[in-house]
Specification:
Largest sheet: 6 strands, antiparallel
Low-confidence stretches: none
Structural class: mainly beta
Oligomer: single chain
Strand content: 35-45%
CATH architecture of the largest domain: 7 Propeller
CATH superfamily of the largest domain: YVTN repeat-like/Quinoprotein amine dehydrogenase
CATH class of the largest domain: Mainly Beta
CATH topology of the largest domain: Methylamine Dehydrogenase, Chain H
Distance between the termini: 49 Å
Shape: globular
Helix content: under 10%
Mean pLDDT: 94
Number of domains: 2
């Protein structure tokens, strides 16, 4: 028997005695304790006592009583507490390689890694649309194309999201795309011919809330462009020809008609392709609004079912978090995704990482469609994943994490990378007119 006089199972978070006895609206604080996502629900007076080091009386309640407290009667007024970061220091070589960037092309806007063996090759996008191929190992550079940076209507940034051009490159550098994050337009170029093959239009409906949804992927040896063509629609196109590879149409609707089959109420966000190129992770959101990262099978989408991105059997949600999307996330291997933030609401989010296995079924009563393996405090900023390791970069520098142990194994203060070069096995950032690079082999 639980403290609420009901049979189990118990809710995940214990509550203070005052919350269990509440019969009318009450404010509560979500208080984090322990080494992972362990938490308590406390009334505001109990939270104040917690702040002073006193431990209030806590009760284990059933899930229905927990919902009555947290949802029906309660409103979240804040968060408190925190969990210590687990430290397991290992050898780390802090050496950075610095290569001056070419200055003759103007103001640098963005960079993108391209692969050619293990060389550190990059494409550089300049303010007037010039594209430059840059060898960071030798310092050699050459202009390869010029793109059109579409001018969009100026508007007030939404929630700090400032529209800006973003450069995407296919792995071997044959194709590039320049899109405007938190904007509407972009284009895809075939660098072998210099021709624009796809004019991108992601739609104007609430595009200020998400980066432009775009990614290159390789499916069965073929490069494809994944791109948003409306707020709730993604498409696959051939970047060499511009041909649409995911043709599908909703039947015409009249006022009062039922929603169409395959209808999707989902705002697509930033896209992340798994290392084996088989799955796509989408950092999108749904009304009211809540962030809801999704994942699905790229092979099925291209080969079998053009509706796979809407409601195909491989499409699974990972978690649901109120007012929280456009956040850090990455693949650390072919099956595991890491997403930042411990909590389920932007008002109660603490720095940390949650790890999901997209191949495993969720535990009973879990909220998502895949299994959450673990969570641990600490990681914040931008996330990178490579060969099972997690790297997080914030304004203080780089942290290296062992996700299996939930521990930080190394730090590199002052180096805050913005890009991962998979083939060169390095992290990089632009700083003071140079490309700074750190080898991932430097951490053991």
């Amino acid at each position: 028997m639980l403290d609420c006089d009901h049979e189990g199972p118990a809710a995940e978070a214990p509550v203070c005695t005052h919350l269990l006895g509440a019969t009318s609206a009450v404010k509560y604080v979500r208080w984090y304790v322990g080494a992972e996502d362990e938490r308590e629900l406390l009334c505001e007076p109990c939270a104040a006592e917690r702040e002073q080091g006193k431990r209030p009386g806590l009760l284990r309640v059933c899930k229905n009583c927990h919902r009555r407290i947290a949802v029906d009667l309660g409103s979240l007024s804040g968060v408190g507490g925190g969990a210590p970061i687990r430290e397991q220091p290992r050898p780390l070589d802090p050496t950075l390689r610095r290569t001056p960037l070419p200055t003759q092309f103007g103001t640098l806007v963005d960079v993108a890694a391209i692969g050619d063996g293990a060389r550190s090759l990059w494409l550089l996008l300049y303010q007037d649309g010039v594209l430059v191929r840059f060898d960071a190992d030798s310092g050699a550079s050459a202009q390869v194309a010029r793109v059109r940076l579409t001018v969009e209507e100026e508007r007030q940034p939404w929630s700090g999201r400032v529209p800006r051009p973003r450069l995407h490159a296919s792995r071997r550098g044959d194709f590039v795309a320049v899109c405007r994050d938190y904007g509407q337009f972009g284009e895809v170029l075939d660098l072998r011919s210099g021709k624009v093959t796809i004019s991108l239009d992601g739609g104007a409906y609430h595009n200020e809330t998400v980066p432009f949804s775009f990614a290159f992927a390789e499916i069965d040896g073929r490069v494809v462009a994944v791109h948003r063509s409306s707020w709730n629609r993604l498409d696959l196109s051939d970047p060499a020809t511009g041909d649409l590879l995911s043709a599908r149409e909703h039947p015409p609707r009249k006022e009062g008609d039922a929603p169409p089959a395959h209808g999707l109420d989902y705002f697509h966000g930033a896209l992340y392709v798994s290392p084996d190129q088989r799955h796509l992770l989408d950092d999108g959101w749904v009304w009211h609004p809540v962030g809801m990262p999704m994942v699905w099978d790229l092979d099925r989408w291209l080969m079998d079912n053009p509706w796979e991105s809407e409601d195909g059997p491989s499409r699974l949600d990972l978690c649901v978090r109120a007012y929280y999307w456009d956040c850090a996330m990455t693949w650390i291997d072919d099956r595991r995704v890491v997403i930042d933030g411990l909590g389920d609401d932007d008002r109660s989010m603490l720095p940390g990482a949650r790890i999901f296995d997209i191949t495993a079924k969720p535990e009973p009563e879990a909220e998502g469609g895949v299994r959450e393996l673990s969570s641990f405090p600490g990681p914040m900023g931008q996330f990178f994943g490579h060969r099972g390791r997690l790297y997080s970069a914030d304004r203080t520098g780089l942290s290296v994490w062992d996700p299996d142990q939930g521990a930080r194994v190394g730090q590199l203060p002052g180096f805050s990378p913005t890009h991962l070069h998979v083939d060169a096995n390095e992290l990089a950032s632009v700083s003071d007119g140079a490309l700074l690079r750190w080898s991932l082999d430097s951490a053991r």
